[in-house]
User: Fold this.
Amino acid sequence: MRTSIVTSINWQAGISAAKKVTDRWNQPGEPGGAITLFDSTSLKGEACGGLANLTTNEPFSIESVVRYASVTKHIFATLALLRSDAGLSTDDTLGQHLPQLKGPMAKVTIGQALDMTAGLPDVRETLSLLGISVYNATDADALIDFLASDGSLNFAAGSEISYSNTGYRLVETILKQKGILFEDLLQQHIAKPLDIAFHAPETWFDIVPNLVPGYWKSQTGWQTSAAGLHLSASGSLTGSLRSLSGWLQSLLADVGPGEGVLKHLSQLRFLTNGTPTAYGLGITHSKIGENQLLGHGGSHAGYKTYFLLDPQRKVGVALVSNREDTASYSALLDVMSALLETPLPARSTALVDGLYTSLAEPYWLSVDNGVASYLGASENLYQGEDGSSVSLSAHLPMRLKMNGTAIEGEIGLARRYFIPAEPNDCLPMIQGRWFHPESKAAFDIEGDELKMGIGPLRASGKMVSIGQGRLLVNMPDGPWQKSFCLYFQGYDVHVISNRSRVLIFRRDECRISWEPTA
Assistant:
């Protein structure tokens, strides 16, 4: 009979690894964060660094209230599926509850909407491709109308795995239409029973008691972050690291509000071809050595969060931060590796650096010193057991190898084949205005620049050809750079990014060019 390998728990090594992370934030006038280590009954250690507020110089602590961002997802899935009276089944289609949805979107199941296999275009990324800034405020109902107006998917539901926040927004809308609010469920089933200060504001501008600012670093220094998108249950939750740790301890203990949650949310999910995924319902599977871990991360402008749990040993680690540059996942991997006394796999640089494109689709891959970026989303690469270069991500799994000068393997559990990009000069044929009829958005191509927006908000980005009518564009979007591809086909151009692949702009043949008279 095969026996599982049980590693020891080294709390002191884990705490030392955590302090190495937080000590880097102890720089004058810089934001920071905190890390906790715990079992199912008590906090075993904590590490804090940096400031919670750059105006008051308040130091960051495990009491500092932050935005958890997408760590919200597993809590919403818990409440929607296990604690509400909504009567939802993961086999229900979205269209059964939201009849305004059209086309393939209506046929997506609730399970697919929550397990990242639905192909639902991410709202925030789609708005960004239309030229709507991260700072522009949006209304929940208007966003649902926007989604329902088309109904297209990034890919056939169940054919691959790719991260999107939209499924959680849609399932929350189902609850709202039944008169069930996320905040009410949160207080009734988690916050009050555990006596913790969880809240789920719907907008960035709602007042949250004791919320510390988030920060990002510009060329001129640290800036206070902001975002206009209606938050939704994909990432609205706020609280302190102490509160988050208390909830996670409830999950490990499998009692009270956390009873049965990990078992339900972590059940294996599958693509339609039977391939198992490592993403459950708002929670991910990962491994360090033979240690099976559950966790999830979160990222809002200026905030980073992550947690990792070892349910077998009933131990966990969690991180929150109010600085945009925090690499939360890799930081917690280091802490959990030390805690379990199990080394991480070695980093891989086996893939040749460069820019690659697929043949059948307008997709691209860039490789730079052991970091692979697929459609603009980056992952660190590690040495896989079969000689492949692999990511350790459940929502963007990669398993890739060189095949001559090409790269082949899997991304998102779908087969991919890339060849080195072969640029060509198509710029003379695509000059002018391109228009998105449904949203009335437009952009202009002038020389090798794409320009989008109006008046003083007009932004521009350089275009780089990758061949076969495709150009990559990089443009600023608040604290980030957005990367996307323009794929020209006659009078149409498809605008492609990692989380949004449904927009089609058309050449504006009606544009009038006014020329000065002699």
Q: What stands out?
A: The chain has three domains: 1-71+199-343, 354-419, 427-507.
